[in-house]
Amino acid sequence: MSELISLLHASLLVGDLARSRTFYEGVLGLIPNPARPAMNFDGVWYDVGAGQIHLINLPNPDPVAGRPEHGGRDRHTALGVRDFATLQARLDAAGLPYTRSRSGRAALFVRDPDGNALELVEVAQAGVA
Length: 129
Description:
The chain is α/β, with parallel strands linked by helices. Helix content is 16%, strand content 30%. The chain has a four-stranded mixed beta sheet, with helices on one face. The two termini are 26 Å apart.
């Protein structure tokens, strides 16, 4: 039995914090958590259920070019979505490309402006914060 009990946060490197905030706040609807302490680099934290997404404004050591089109075949962070159709409509309205899950479930993969892959998965309403 593992001693691990929860995922606390996922940190994503971003090159242009303002551009990334437009995506995470404007398209995904996340709200910044003001509790982020002062650090020697810029960034923002978002609460997502019991965990967080940390955007870290630092140079990305990984290549962005040449990544698979389908984020399910790349490193990705999966996020539960309450209203999948509304979120998909927001992505469409923003003109953001995405791919549907190849398993047939209500899920899609989208990349943020820095190429970080996100899996957005429809989850049942009960028990989801």
